[in-house]
Amino acid sequence: MRPEPGQVLHFSEDPMIARFAPHVAATAQQAESYVWAVDWHNAPSYWFPRQCPRAMAWATARSSDEDRTLILGPGGGERVHAVEYGWLEAMRTVKLYAYRFDAARFRPFGTPAEPHAWVSEQSVLPLGPAEPVGDLFALLEEADIQLRVLPNLWPFWNAVVSSTLGVSGIRLRNAKPQDQRV
Length: 182
Description:
Pfam families: DUF6886 (PF21820). By secondary structure, this protein is of the alpha+beta class.
């Protein structure tokens, strides 16, 4: 489930949103109100239940061979997403939907070279009804993204943020505490 050319996506567990109004996200680090969406590259970061904590890493042009081997591993492709065991059932059963928007209504948000999101400061209407995303495990497999399931995300997260890989962490506040063991 990725956007077509000229589109961005918003993922939600609510299939009945008719109009998206700008708001300040609960986890926002800025005071501005936005409607949030993602592009083709960042869509896989949202193939999860909304509250699911996940840590993600991927190879970039500046990634070292050592970090690729250490973190992505042999046969692991160019990208890995990690979750905790406690979220597997939610990933299997969540009903996730994608809304398509005209990308012309949005601007990139984040670093100019690699925006992590797209935002609109005006209300936007989806291009059509919400589309079921389907089997999240199948999506990850089709996209050649390794899904790593861990007892605790923090050792992985600590390793990826100090690596040369591209990284993203979403809803990490919902992960088990760093020192908690299974």
